[in-house]
Structures are given as structure tokens and as C-alpha cells.
Design goal:
Layout lengths: L9 E7 L3 H17 L2 E7 L5 H13 L5 E4 L9 H5 L13 H8 L8 H12 L8 E5 L6 H9 L15 E5 L5 H8 L4 E4 L17 E4 L3 E4 L6 E4 L4 H5 L4 E2 L6 H18 L5
Parallel strand pairs: 1-2, 1-3, 4-5, 4-6, 6-7, 7-10
Antiparallel strand pairs: 8-9
Length: about 280
């Protein structure tokens, strides 16, 4: 883009408060942007910043013609309303894909900024040639930012009107915190594809899954290693037992996480090119 004389894409990352994980995520995103030539700017606001102050900053970024993409790192402090803040970013700069208009257009198979983690899951499935057409898929977790859009992509029609984000034509089941364990085991035992995003370490073990299934583990859980006594990151699956039976399984860390960052870069470039017409 730059070689063609176009303006360098510009991503603005907004972080509020002291959450250590948020700090890590923001640094990783800024580092990825700088690596591929996207300009990045980070605004780190204090924990006690008022919601009105945050909304004022976002409005300034909305009208700044030099800013292509805006990402507000979640979670926000307790005194802020997440939905209000996410919906304050105008849709064409909403590179997280969380605005109600982007979510609505996404669900209607229209061109939109799609959420980055679901896009990353889809890209992994495509790159590894995992068959989805008519296959049984189980999504564990129903969050509006991850579980729901992943389920939409898995069961959606492969012919979408946006021409780029194709559905995967799977037969998709969504399980959640109120799904009885015996029912969860029933569905998992028949699943060709499992995507889990519950935040429950060890939820899925090797004896619960079908041999040869593909597992995409979106869970990020901090636990204490029982051997070393040190903190470590794990997914929702018991990796060792599941890896013995699965044909594919993503590690945590290092699996879906980097793909989420990559899809954020993709959305930023799309925003800079103004490829999505609202």
C-alpha cells in the first residue's frame, strides 16, 4: 500500500486501568502492527477515568481522518458499561467487530468488520484443510464476542453476500454453562470439530472426544502448575489426553491467540482501504 503511494494504515489501541493481561495484549497488538508496517498509537488511561472521558476520546478518534482503526481493550473497569463503550466506536473503524451494526451485518451475511477471534478460528480451519461441509461441530461457550460468531461461521451458508467471509456449512451445536455434563459428553463424542471458549481449564478430556476430531481451543486460563508451583497458561482442554485422539489441536498459548492478532491486522488494513461500504 505504501509503495503504491497510499497512506500508512493507523491503528489506535485504547487501554483503561491496570489489568496486567490487558497490558500484555495491547503490547502484542502494537508490536504486530509495527512489524508489518501499520502505524500504532496506544492511549493508556488511569483506572479511575470516567466513562464520559473515555467516550470523549473515542469521539475524537472517530472524527480523526488519520485514524483507520480503533480498538478498546476489554475488560473495562467495573464503573464503565462495555456495550456503551463498544458501540461508541463508529462501525467503519470498529476493527474488533463488536459494534451492534457490525454484529448485525455479520449475522445477515453482509460485509462487515467481523470479530477477530472467530476470524482466526476460521482461518486455521481453512489453512489446514479441515473438512466442515455437513460435519458435526460443537461450540462450547456462547459469548457474544466469541462463541456466538464462531457458531454463526460454522453453521452459516458457504455462499455469503460479502464474498469474502464464507460460512462453513456444518451442523452446529452450542453448549454453555447450563448444558448438563452428560449432554456435553453426548455432543462432544459425535463432534468432528470442537471449538471451546469457556474459560474452564480441563473441561474437555480425551475420553470425551471422537477419535480424529479437530479441536480449536480458544480458552485462556491462568492456573498454578501442580509440579512447579508456578503460574502457567492452559486452554479449556486437557491437552495431553486430547492430543492422543484428535487429528488437530491448537496449543495454549500459541494457537488461536496469535491468529486473533493477525485478524486484527487484517481488519485494520480493510478499514484503511475502506473496503466495507456502510
Amino acid at each position: 500500500m505504501v509503495e503504491r503511494g497510499e497512506r500508512t494504515p493507523h491503528l489506535v489501541l485504547v487501554r483503561v486501568g491496570r489489568d496486567p493481561a490487558s497490558g500484555t495484549y495491547v503490547r502484542n497488538k502494537a508490536r504486530a502492527a509495527d512489524k508489518i508496517g501499520i502505524q500504532s498509537t496506544v492511549h493508556h488511561l488511569p483506572q479511575d477515568t470516567s466513562q464520559s472521558t473515555l467516550l470523549h476520546l473515542i469521539n475524537q478518534l472517530n472524527v480523526d481522518s488519520d485514524v483507520d482503526g480503533i480498538l478498546v481493550q476489554l475488560p473495562l473497569p467495573d464503573h464503565m458499561e462495555e456495550k456503551v463503550v463498544c458501540n461508541s466506536v463508529i462501525p467503519r473503524k470498529d476493527v474488533d467487530g463488536f459494534h451492534v451494526i457490525n454484529i448485525g451485518r455479520f449475522c445477515l451475511d453482509m460485509s462487515s468488520m467481523a470479530p477477530c477471534t472467530p476470524l482466526g478460528v476460521m482461518e486455521l480451519i481453512k489453512r489446514y484443510d479441515i473438512e466442515t461441509f455437513g460435519k458435526n461441530a460443537v461450540v462450547c461457550g456462547r459469548s457474544k464476542n466469541v462463541g456466538m460468531p464462531i457458531a454463526m461461521l460454522l453453521h452459516g451458508d458457504g455462499i455469503r453476500t460479502d464474498g469474502e467471509i464464507g460460512g462453513m456449512d456444518s451442523t452446529t451445536t452450542i453448549c454453555h454453562r447450563y448444558t448438563p455434563m452428560e449432554q456435553l459428553c453426548f455432543f462432544l463424542a459425535r463432534a468432528d470439530i470442537i471449538v471451546t471458549a469457556t474459560g474452564l481449564p480441563g473441561l474437555i478430556t480425551g475420553d470425551m472426544i471422537k477419535p480424529g476430531c479437530a479441536i480449536l481451543d480458544v480458552g485462556i486460563n491462568r492456573i498454578t502448575d501442580p509440579i512447579t508451583g508456578k503460574p502457567k497458561l492452559v486452554g479449556d482442554c486437557d491437552f495431553e489426553s486430547c492430543a492422543e485422539k484428535a487429528s488437530y489441536i491448537t496449543p495454549v498459548p500459541g494457537g488461536v491467540g496469535p491468529m486473533t492478532v493477525a485478524m486484527l491486522m487484517r481488519n485494520t488494513v480493510l478499514a484503511a482501504k475502506k473496503n466495507i461500504i456502510y
